[in-house]
Every structure is written in C-alpha cells, then in structure tokens.
Amino acid sequence: MEKYTVPEFGTLTGIKVVCSATSVAGPLVGSLMADHGADVIWLESSVGPSMERNNPEGCQIAQDRRNMRSMALNIPTEQGKKILLELLRDTDVLVESSKGGQWEKWGLTDEVLWQANPKLTIVHLSGFGQTGDPAYIGRASFDPIGQAFAGLMYMNYQPGSVPAPAYPVVGDYYLGFMGVFAALAGYISAQRTGRGESVDVSQFESILRCNPLSAMLDWNLPEGHPRRFQPGNLNASTAGYNAYKCADGEYVYMLIISRGVMERVFPVLGLEYGSAELPKKAVYRIYDPEGKILEKAVVDYCLAHTAQEVETALLAVGAPVMRMMKFSDIPGNSHVIARGSLTTCQNSRGEDIVCCSVMPKMKNNPGRVWRRAPGWGEDNKEILSELGFGEDDIAQLYEQHILSE
C-alpha cells in the first residue's frame, strides 16, 4: 500500500477536513483548503464513483481533487455511520453537499455529529438550504436550477434568445467560495469558544448575495423607472460600458465611467468633456442625450479600429479596457506567465495536463500541489489504519460492501 502522508506546508497545515461532496461547489471547498495544506479526505460513495470520474479527459477531477485522499464509504449503513463518526473525532471541518435534510434522514443530525466531536464545524451545501418552505428544501439543484431561481439567468437573458445560465457554472462557484468562508469562519470560532458550528449555505442565496445592484434596483425602484433592470441591459443603462465589436471582428470590453476616465478618453473619441452637450458627470446613461452621444462615439470608434488598436489607445490614457481573450490566448499571455497562474497536474491516466495554479498566493506560507487526484477509494486502508482498524477488519468491510475501490 502506497502511503500518502500529507506534507506540512501552507496556512492550513494541521487542519483536517472531510469532504462528502460531488459536482463543483463541495469539491471546490475541499480543493482550495487542500491546496493550502489541509489534510482533506474525499469521502466518496462505495456504491459508485463520483460523477466527476465520468469526465473522459480527467480535467475537472485533476484540478478539483488534487492534494486529497479518497475513501469510498457507504455512509447510510449502520457500519458506515460508525466509521464516519470515528473519522470525525479528530476532524476540524465536515463539508457535505446534498439535498436539504438528507443527512438528517440518515440519522446524522448536527447533534449526533457533535456528540462525536463538539468542536466540529459542519458546512451544509445545498440548492435551497436546510430550512424554509418544505416544498423547496428537498428539491434537487444543479447550477442552472439555482441560477433560474435566484434571477441570474434572467439577468443574462437576451431578448429574442432562449434563456441560458451564465457559464461556467458560476452559481456553483459562488456556493463553493461561500462554503470556504463558512468553513474557516466556523473553524476560527471553534478555536476561540471550543464549540462547533453548523453552517447552512444555499446556492440560491450565494447567487443573490453576489448580485446586489441589479436585483436591489428592481426591488426598490417603482415600476417603469429607467434604472430598473431590463433583460439585455447588463450594466444598469450605463453608456460606454459594454462589449463593442471592432473592425477586425474581435471585441473589446470597456468601462467609461468616472470623471477622470472621461476627461482622458473623450479626446480619443473626438468628444469634448464639459461641453454644453456633454456636461461633467461621473456616469452617462444611455437613455439621456449625453449618453446617446457617448455610446455612438464608442461604437463608431471601435468599428474604425482593430481590437488591439482600441485597447492600446485607451490603455494609453488609463482607461479600463480589455480585448476579449480566447482560451487559447491565455497560456501564452505575458502576465499569466509572469505570475505563474497556470501549472500542470496529472489526470487519472498519469498524463500531465495544464490547470490553474494554487490561489490565492500566500507570501510567507505558500500553498502547493503535492499529489494528483486520488483513485476511487485509493486511501481506504491508510485512513482506516489511522483510525485503528486492522487488516482483517478492513477486509471484512470490503466483503460487506461498506468500502469499495
């Protein structure tokens, strides 16, 4: 049996995390913590491998499950629950993603988990939360479901087209980042008070929290107000704030907002900031006369120049502007190379593939990639041995289908 002892590195060294989660949000929580030194045990079901293993290229699992150990356990069985509770006795954070109330149905309430470890931080990730209207709590939810419920799909809807979620599964990533915050906040509190915490993190609320302006304008302004959100208008009716097509067919995105930016950009566009037609304001609205003038000038300027020419000219005067990058442009970009934003890790076939580096970047205690994503149940024996199980005990668990690999 090859032993993968977690090396000591990073800001989270010494923290133990059990992550019983599939898809995107839960694995993201575990991955970010593992990249910074936490001992993260990926608790898969022994009934069958997690859905991420169905990716033939192995890209998602290679990045989101690196630095972890894997244990394939049939949690809902009586023996599975006993093993889980034993595992949690010295665990700092448990992350689980399922339908609201699923663990309670298994008899694994927060109170039962705290009997095993009173300082445990429990992070429940779900689509609609653990409380609220019973008709919603138990609903299955993936990223597009959360986006449809929380208004993000509506926000990105373009009239005349079929509504579609914003990609790549941003609702899942919002949920994952909220989950990391919840895990660390609960852990810090437990160190201070000696008492664990249970955190209910819902996907739809994570999406709502990351979309304050458009939704709040709609909630607080009267019907018919020009500042209320309208489908197809992604920037609250701000002129000079959009993606613009250029002479070479490429696009640039710019934000001509604030007095300083306008003073510097307007001469490039052939406009006079502060004239009678273009009064000095921090923001022009596209429904106002000055906003229409600015918007037309931007459109005309971009159509007369290539995307690179537009970016170069506006950068020269300190404007926020960026050519739309294709995925193929990113690895060779000088800034990406200089920061080391990309690295390589191994997929399930042992092949090196390009993936994101560890982030965020820590100066004094940097994270690192020390292990590929584990195979299904690859670390069963090592983890159970750490809990005091002997070889015969482990063999019996395989015979009972409590474990798999």
Give an overview in words:
With 405 residues, the chain is α/β, with parallel strands linked by helices. The strands form three sheets. A six-stranded parallel sheet has the order 3-2-1-4-5-6, sandwiched between helices. Strand 2, helix 2 and strand 3 form a beta-alpha-beta unit. The mean pLDDT is 90.
Describe what is shown at a glance.
The protein is an alpha/beta fold. Helices cover 37% and strands 14% of the residues. A six-stranded parallel sheet has the order 3-2-1-4-5-6, with helices on both faces.
Low-confidence stretches: none
The rounded distance between the terminal residues' Cα atoms is 13 Å
The overall pLDDT, averaged over residues, is 90
Helix content range of the residues, please?
25-40%
> Tell me about the biggest sheet?
6 strands, parallel
Radius of gyration: 25 Å
Strand order, sheet with most strands: 3-2-1-4-5-6
Number of strands: 11
Secondary-structure-based class equals: alpha/beta
Total helices: the number is 17
- The run of helices and strands is EHEHEHEHHEHHHHEHHEEHHHEHEEHH
The rough form would be described as: elongated
Our estimate of the beta-strand percent is: 5-15%
Feature tags:
single chain; six-stranded parallel sheet; three-stranded antiparallel sheet; 11 strands
Strand and helix map with partners:
Elements: E1 16-20, H1 25-34, E2 39-44, H2 59-64, E3 68-72, H3 78-88, E4 93-97, H4 102-105, H5 110-116, E5 121-126, H6 134-137, H7 143-150, H8 152-155, H9 170-193, E6 197-202, H10 203-209, H11 212-220, E7 241-245, E8 251-255, H12 259-269, H13 289-303, H14 307-315, E9 321-323, H15 334-339, E10 342-346, E11 352-356, H16 380-386, H17 391-399
Parallel strand pairs: 1-2, 1-4, 2-3, 4-5, 5-6
Antiparallel strand pairs: 7-8, 8-9, 10-11
Helix pairs in contact: 1-9, 7-10, 9-10
